[in-house]
Amino acid sequence: MGEATTTAATTAWPGEQLVRAAQDGDAEAVRALVSGSYPHVLRFARTLCATPQDAEDAAQEALIILYRRIGMLRATAALGSWMFRIVRNECLRRARIAMRRADTARRVEAVCDPVEEDVLARLEAEAVVAAIVALPAELRRVLILRDVQGWSGRAVAEELGLSLAAMKSRLHRARATVRSALAAQEAGRG
User: Fold this and answer.
1) CA 43, CA 101: separation in Å to the nearest integer?
2) pTM
């Protein structure tokens, strides 16, 4: 019976007499009021805030407000509801900040991703151009006409005075050489 009474006493909000003494400026009463309110404030914060860290921070902020503004509390019996509103407002403020940060991060990511992709695409294009330029002239011409300019196989063969089979053979060698050069560059970066 004594344990249940002790537990109930330690879990109750600080009494009106302590609140009045704190409002009158009694430093010891203010300390007792803040420490006696802490478990309740933290419980509110844990149910309202998104993360345990936010709950702890909101509870601390609410206790600071209690300490600074205890004189503004009109009805001493309203301590619990007053603290609940303070904690709720602090948790909402923290949620808004988190949402703004997340939104800002999404916008930065949305801007950075295309820029990063553009840079990577340019680097890849430069590597492809360098590999094509390094080809022997007869392979480079076949590759450029067929793969870059999009000519048909027959048109490329006629333009270069080759049989269709010879043009295909050169095109195959050109593509294989470019692939090999790009793979070597990739291996050199890794």
Assistant:
1) 26
2) 0.48
Q: CA-CA distances (angstroms) from residue 88 to 48, 61, 70?
A: 7, 11, 18
**What are the chain's domains?**
7-102 (1.10.1740.10), 134-189 (1.10.10.10)
CB 180 within 8 A of CB 174: no
Q: Residue 26, SS3?
A: coil
Q: Are 165 and 157 in contact (CB under 8 A)?
A: no
Q: What share of the chain is helix, strand, coil (3-state, %, to 5)?
A: 85, 0, 15
Residues 59-111: tens digit of each pLDDT: 999 889 888 888 777 766 678 888 888 888 888 888 888 777 777 777 766 66
Sole residue written with tokens 């600080």: 14
